[in-house]
Amino acid sequence: MKVSIKTFVGIVIFVAFSILAFRGRSYLRDLGWFAMSAIRTPSQIGAVAPSSPFLAEAIIKHIKPGKEAVRILEVGAGTGAFTEKIIEKMTKNCHLDAIELDSDLSKLLREKFEKHENVTIHNMSILDWNPRYHYDYIISGVPLNAFDDEL
Fold first, then answer.
1. Which of 19, 50, 76, 77 could join 34 in a cystine, given CB atoms 3.0 to 4.6 angstroms apart?
2. What is this structure's pTM?
3. Quick one: which H or E segment has residue 123?
């Protein structure tokens, strides 16, 4: 699938804005990974940029793990903006399954979070995910317009 000039210009403008707005090195690195995946496989990427740390905080604010075991599912983990914030809240009895369709982004996630024994990165479609357990929290930053109308 080719990327139109209009889409490319939009990405360039967004990257320039992001550099000015988010001066954190990790966000800029993630933006680069994300942009390359979006250009390479646009049908697998649901947004034009990774979620900001501010959005991640707002999305995960209701996760409140206690002393009991908690299972969390993240759908469309991307570059790990939500993943990172979820891990900050997790206790020893929590487990996070992060699903990411894009293989390069899955590789990035594994590199970023490999030291966390209670985090598992799965490179697959959520449609193929069939765990034998339930989740206490399900988080997704994938925009609904990324899905076909039928789905």
1. 50
2. 0.68
3. strand 119-123
